Amino acid sequence: MSIPDNMTYSLTALLIVTALLVGKSAQGFPNGGVSGGDEWAEDSIAHGCSCHMDEQLNEGMYSLDGIPDAYEPEKTYNISLAIADENVDMAEDAVRYGGFLAEVSEGAFITNENYWIGGEGSYISHNDNSNIVRNWTFEWTAPADGAGDAVFVIYFNVVNGQGTNGDQWSYLTAVSLGTPQASSHELSIHELGVTLMQYWIGLMGIGVVLLSVLISYVVIRGGSAHYRG
Asked: Of 103, 124, 131, 149, whose CB has the highest number of CB atoms within 10 Å?
């Protein structure tokens, strides 16, 4: 897999909305979703993945690039996540150095031999081909027009490949603005919660009121004419 050479590391990642969370825990897998599947991905996004270290990463540097401020509908983007953490050794004899799991609310990630894709494209993670690095570039196709904003949640960890001691993890979220979701002002009575029986009772009530008004008018008019005679 290709690894960016000119990645600029920064403690402030592009489009970061939230980057700190503690006290979460979920099972991790060296090959990500290949072993865990959709259930693992959903649980990890909801509860975090701190199996390599209880404390969240508070040292080192990372960057997120490629998520647009506002996406073009159905356009494919290259997203890059890179971690530069000298606090966790990259021993020469280690078999893995890091991993990640991302979820997006709209659009779909695109798979290749270096990543696992789940949830019909809403999840992406490392696999056995991509846990030997600490930087990843993957593709995301934006949704169609009118889908609304796309929210990204990305967990990542850095490991020394020699047990869980000394490993670190963190997570971040980002938003790519989209076109507003389509709304319809033409609602049927059923969508408003009105049953068919209620509808007909309402019509009958209106009819009774109109009939009462007509009868009253006729009676009053007849009485007035009689009085004048």
From this structure: 124
